[in-house]
Design brief:
By secondary structure, the protein is an alpha+beta fold. The chain folds into two domains: 84 residues, E3-binding domain (Dihydrolipoamide Transferase, Irregular), CATH 4.10.320.10; 223 residues, Chloramphenicol acetyltransferase-like domain (Chloramphenicol Acetyltransferase, 2-Layer Sandwich), CATH 3.30.559.10. It is built from ten helices and eleven strands. Strands 1, 4, 7, 8, 9, 10 and 11 form a seven-stranded mixed sheet that branches. A two-stranded antiparallel ribbon has the order 2-3. Strands 5-6 form a two-stranded antiparallel ribbon.
Length: 324
């Protein structure tokens, strides 16, 4: 200790009865050398000032300047690591903690991304016949005081497709895929703080008009903030849509423990080749994100082929519309 100028009064002994050991002296030497190095290295004055303002220990800051010189950017990086929000300083206009519904959505979407191996498949659908049926139903549904929507046909077609491809109507829990008896579809609806997903029960057994009435009922409850627990539970599959906006394709996230979700883009007109001729058709894109742990691409592609076939078929649409 004397040879290395170590003051034993400042050394804490770790030996029997507090005896100072050789290892204790070596530790004291290392601490002194580290402190001396930190004190003697070059630090830009503004960096020192910034560190003092934010209680940053310069000994913990790695200098990236010439000879290890500590720059302002080095202190800013250390500040960001310790408190990301403080690095923005006066640039922050408003800070809003995630609470309530937004916090629930945040937690569930984080769980979705962390826990699943998600893949998205997208297909283009000729929606010309769908649009025609919607226009035809305007007069037919007038007595029910109901205006038809594209969503009505999409939910109906999805229900029928899930009946034919039940592996997408399932939960994955504890490494077990559980196929569900009923085709209950959650339909995402926007609210000021985010999204809610009320449920249309037994879609495959309901008429097109019955599906439309249930969707309007759920939309009304969503606006009135009167959805019940029963309205919100039991879905084995979810549909989310941005068709009211100029969005063609997007990648929805699966809501666990479900294994798949359908995303619908807007319907728009475009020139397409039909029987060797260029004609204008109404088209839309449908995207299915699925959990690759529970499903492979082929069964999802087959589901999408069935969905596409139904929505493009004048016969299927007409038959669905005639159901009581």
């Amino acid at each position: 200790a004397k040879d290395n100028d170590i003051d034993l009064d400042n050394v804490t002994g770790t030996g029997p009865r507090g005896r100072i050991t050789e290892d204790d002296i070596r530790a004291a030497m290392a601490a002194r050398d580290t402190q001396s190095s930190a004190e003697n290295r070059q630090i830009v004055p503004k960096a020192r000032q910034l560190a003092r303002q934010h209680n940053i220990d310069l000994a913990d800051v790695i200098g990236t300047g010439p000879g290890g010189r500590v720059l302002v950017a080095d202190v800013e990086n250390a500040l960001s690591a310790s408190d990301p929000a403080s690095a923005y300083g006066d640039a922050v206009a408003e800070s809003t903690p995630l609470t309530g519904l937004r916090k629930i959505i945040s937690d569930r979407m984080s769980l979705s991304v962390r826990s699943m191996a998600q893949v998205t498949l997208t297909t283009e659908i000729d929606a010309t016949e769908l649009v025609k049926l919607r226009e035809t139903l305007v007069s037919k549904w007038r007595s029910d005081r109901l205006r038809p929507m594209d969503q009505d046909m999409i939910v109906a077609a999805t229900g029928d497709a899930l009946k034919q491809h039940p592996r997408l109507n399932a939960y994955l829990q504890d490494d077990t895929v559980m196929l569900l008896k009923n085709v209950n579809i959650g339909v995402a609806m926007a609210v000021p703080d985010g999204l809610v997903v009320p449920v249309v029960d037994c879609v495959d057994q309901a008429s097109l008009l019955g599906i439309a009435k249930r969707l309007r009922e759920l939309a009304g409850k969503t606006r009135d903030n009167s959805l019940t627990i029963e309205d919100m539970t039991g879905a084995g599959f979810t549909i989310t849509s941005l068709s009211n906006y100029d969005i063609d394709v997007f990648t929805p996230l699966v809501d666990p423990p479900q294994v798949a979700i359908l995303g619908i883009g807007r319907i728009s007109q475009k020139p397409v080749a039909v029987d060797g001729e260029i004609v204008v058709r109404s088209t839309m894109h449908a995207s299915v994100t699925f959990d690759h742990r529970a499903l492979d691409g082929v069964p999802v592609a087959e589901f999408m082929r069935t969905l596409k076939s139904s929505l493009e078929s004048a016969e299927w649409l007409a038959a669905r519309a005639l159901e009581a």
